[in-house]
């Protein structure tokens, strides 16, 4: 019995040791995989590009954007001199080429692209003119881009490919075409013909704000309404549309008592809630390099504070027979008007900062104009009614 017990105990210990060793081995493998994965990533949170010492130009203080999240493309860029723009495109190195094209209309055909790849530790960068959709139509060493001589390089480092180049132009074209070639299939050294890309995306790109939007027909993952545009639309609807309408309801429709009061309350509460949602999204926006964004943020906080005081004032609303009611009315009316005017000004400032498309600016401008005309007409009507 003693020997059997000892044998059983020994077997249990052996199994425990094996289990422990297997666990340690699995942990090491997982840790190694995590480290290898992390080493092949790049993000805009990194202040300095990993291959800065190998780039043939100063790469400090570049703007950075996640250009194509689906393929982990990171684009850094800067206006580095008169008629000179510098770019560094970073992407996973899968034994394929990566490309960024510049287009005036967002179409791949007719654009010119900078294409880079690495083979046997040697990087190659070429310009291609994309004359069609087949490899035969993509001519190497041709294109409309004016590449600065001796300022282009491709570096493979830690599982990523870095394509750096400079363009001689006053302002790059407004659409970027990103493409990635098939894994393990590089252009042939003799013909330099590009294999058909496995994926591509077209972006409308704003070089001032760093915002980009999907264009029709592209296969990327970026939504047509990114956080920046959602922030703007929510703020515009809440602070700039609903609250001005709510003000008109309270001032010019008091004859419809008590409907005017409940309508006014419902509109203002909805506007307040939507406006807060817009502010929350605003704090999630990457504001690096945006001009006047601090002013826009300060005005937004001021609008929120004043609107919150308006909401709290309802809780302290005195009875109509109270002697302080007229002071409360003065406060409520004038703070409300100031909030609306400040919000309208800040919305136009935000549209200017984002350099939003003219359709949004014109649409909101038309609303404000109609609102001003309506207020003027109602005020004239009130004046004539008082004279009578």
Can you give a write-up of this model?
- The chain is of the alpha+beta class and 388 residues long.
- It has two domains: 63-214, Immunoglobulin-like; 225-387, no CATH class.
- 44% of the residues lie in helices and 20% in strands.
- The chain has helices at residues 2-39, 227-252, 259-282, 293-315, 325-354, 358-387, and strands spanning 63-68, 73-81, 84-92, 98-103, 112-119, 122-130, 138-140, 153-157, 160-167, 175-180, 199-205, 212-214.
- It has a seven-stranded antiparallel beta sheet with strand order 7-6-5-4-10-11-12, with no helix packed on it. The chain has a five-stranded antiparallel beta sheet with strand order 1-2-3-9-8, with no helix packed on it.
- A hairpin with a 2-residue loop joins strand 2 (73-81) and strand 3.
- It is elongated and about 90 Å long.
- The N and C termini lie far apart (117 Å).
- Residues 5-10, 27-39 and 217-224 have low confidence and may be disordered.
List keywords for this structure.
single chain, 388 residues, alpha+beta, Immunoglobulin-like, 2 domains, five-stranded antiparallel sheet, 6 helices, 20% strand
**How many strands in all?**
12
Please provide the ordered H/E string of secondary-structure elements. Answer: HEEEEEEEEEEEEHHHHH
Low confidence ranges: 5-10, 27-39, 217-224
Helix content: 40-55%
**Major sheet: arrangement of strands:** 7-6-5-4-10-11-12
DSSP helical segment count: 6
- The whole-angstrom Rg is 31 Å
SSE-based structural type: alpha+beta
Please, how many domains? 2
Shape annotation? elongated
| Biggest beta sheet summary | 7 strands, antiparallel
As a percent range, the share of strand residues is: 15-25%
Terminal CA distance = 117 Å
Mean pLDDT comes to 84
């Amino acid at each position: 019995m003693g020997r059997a017990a000892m044998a059983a105990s020994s077997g249990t210990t052996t199994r425990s040791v094996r289990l422990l060793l297997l666990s340690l081995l699995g942990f090491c493998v997982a840790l190694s995989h995590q480290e290898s994965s992390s080493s092949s990533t790049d993000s805009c949170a990194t202040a300095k590009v990993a291959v800065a010492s190998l780039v043939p130009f100063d790469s400090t203080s570049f703007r950075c954007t996640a250009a194509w999240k689906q393929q982990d493309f990171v684009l850094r860029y800067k206006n580095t001199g008169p008629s000179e723009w510098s770019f560094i495109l970073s992407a996973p190195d899968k034994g394929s080429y990566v490309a960024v094209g510049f287009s005036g209309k967002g179409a791949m055909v007719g654009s010119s692209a900078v294409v880079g790849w690495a083979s046997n530790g040697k990087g190659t960068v070429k310009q291609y003119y994309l004359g069609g959709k087949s490899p035969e139509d993509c001519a190497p060493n041709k294109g409309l881009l004016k590449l600065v001589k001796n300022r282009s390089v491709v570096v493979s480092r830690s599982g990523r490919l870095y394509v750096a180049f400079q363009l001689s132009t006053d302002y790059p074209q407004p659409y970027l075409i990103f493409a990635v070639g098939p894994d393990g299939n590089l252009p042939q050294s003799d013909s330099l013909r590009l294999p058909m890309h496995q994926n591509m995306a077209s972006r409308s790109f704003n070089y001032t704000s760093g915002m980009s939007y999907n264009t029709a027909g592209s296969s990327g993952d970026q939504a047509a309404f990114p956080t920046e545009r959602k922030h703007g639309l929510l703020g515009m609807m809440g602070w700039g549309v609903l609250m001005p309408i709510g003000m008109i309801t309270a001032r010019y429709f008091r004859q419809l008592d008590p409907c005017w009061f409940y309508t006014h309350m419902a509109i203002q509460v909805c506007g307040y809630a939507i406006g807060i949602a817009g502010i929350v999204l605003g704090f999630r926006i990457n504001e690096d390099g945006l001009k006047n964004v601090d002013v826009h943020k300060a005005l937004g906080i001021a609008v929120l504070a004043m609107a919150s005081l308006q909401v709290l004032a309802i809780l302290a609303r005195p009875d109509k027979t109270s002697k302080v009611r007229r002071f409360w009315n003065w406060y409520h009316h004038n703070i409300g008007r100031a909030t609306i005017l400040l919000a309208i000004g800040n919305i136009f400032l935000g549209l200017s900062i984002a350099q939003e498309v003219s359709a949004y600016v014109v649409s909101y401008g038309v609303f404000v104009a109609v609102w001003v005309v309506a207020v003027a007409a109602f005020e004239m009507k009130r004046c004539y009614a008082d004279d009578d």
